[in-house]
Amino acid sequence: MAKDYYEVLGVSRNSSEIEIKKAYRKLALKYHPDRAPEDKKKEYEEKFKEISQAYSILSDIDKKEQYDQYGQTFKGSPFGQGFSQQDFGSFHDAFGGQDIFEDLGFSRIFEQMFGFRARPSQTTQYGQDIIMDTEIDLEDAFHGVKKEIQLKKMNVCEKCNGKGGKSLKKCSICQGSGFEQVRSNSLFGMFIQQRPCSKCHGRGEVPEEICPECRGQGRIKKISNIKITIPAGIDNGQTLKMSNQGEAGPFGGPAGDLFINVHIRPHKKFQRQGDSLVLNLNINFTQAALGDKIEIQTLAEKIRLKIPSGIQSGEMIELRGKGMPKLHGRGDGSLIIKVQVDIPKKLSRQQKKIIKELGRL
Question: What letter would DSSP give residue 245?
Fold first, then answer.
């Protein structure tokens, strides 16, 4: 038995248009197939189709009225002829327009599942995203660094400029639309699903002469030299995104993105804590008792550090603005000096005498 559309979205029959849209957006984000665990891909896809189909009916005043009249089976209703691509156009409106629709990643998944895209009449096949790791030193994270990496990936075929061949002509299967229809029967009648054309792969046209370099794919695998800029202040584990630097899309489709996970090697002297740098500083007993001025090397420069008299082992000195640059926001972090007083293990008679005299004061 088919599920009630109101139950699918978790709304009542007297819910407003805003309440229906809000319920759909919440469920659509929750069950977006791109967010599915590896072992629940199929389950999320089916659930996503179910809530999308429910919303396509309940968000349309006329269709909602007829659904309320004819019930779950739609007997005698105009829906007995099945659903087509137009019935899924309201998905775009549910997310407030083209920009957010694309940003949420719904455009690609709708294309795969329903043959629906908000922009062109032909479908577009995107290239795969690439995820890679790179290691840098703490000094690179402090100052920022530019690197050039070599990456073997799919690139646009230079011989045919991604077209797959010469003398493009209208596809004989889809007649230039980029889509072909697949009909299947369901409880609601005939269900019409749009999908990319099997011959032209959604382009709407095919080359008369196949490119011998890429064999009609419009892309080939080769090594690319990519320049990356790692900003000052980046933290260990953060990821840089380089748009359109992933795999080239097949048949001239847009390239995916390149994601670079940054790892910072441990430093011999400094430890990083957020935007602060921590330096362990050993001083002798005399410096701790009387105070001193010593020169230390930071990641940026040499500075004169004042050691106050009477400082205790384990105390910290904070130098504001001498730590890591902040990736977002104004000002720099702090340099925190952890003082460790070295107590000599062996003392001469004269040294012991002096310390005993000090102890009597």
Answer: -
pLDDT in tens, 62-117: 788 778 776 655 443 444 333 333 334 444 445 544 333 433 444 444 444 444 44
pLDDT tens per residue, range 129-171: 999 999 999 999 999 999 999 999 999 999 999 889 988 899 9
301-348 confidence digits (pLDDT tens):
999 999 999 999 999 999 999 999 988 767 789 999 999 999 888 878
Q: Report the C-alpha gap between 21 and 337 in whole angstroms.
A: 56
Query: What are the distances in angstroms from CA 359 to CA 65, 192, 266?
Result: 95, 95, 42
For 20, list phi and psi in degrees, rounded to 5. Answer: -65, -45
Compute φ and ψ for 356, nearest 5 degrees: -65, -40
Kind and range of the H or E run holding 85: none
Alpha carbon distance 90, 330 (integer Å): 43
Residues contacting 230, CB < 8 A, separation 6+ = 134, 136, 140, 141, 144, 145, 146, 147, 240, 262
Cβ–Cβ < 8 Å for 205, 174:
no
Cα angle, residue 274 at apex, residues 273 and 279 outer, rounded to 5° = 30
Cβ–Cβ under 8 Å, residues 9 and 28: no
How far apart are alpha carbons 8 and 286 in whole angstroms?
77
DSSP character string of 252-318: GPPP--EEEEEEEPPPSSEEEETTEEEEEEEEEHHHHHH-EEEEEE-SS-EEEEEE-TTPPTT-EEE
Assigned token pair, 251? 């048949």
Residue 299's alpha-carbon distances to 140, 219, 278, in angstroms, are 10, 45, 11
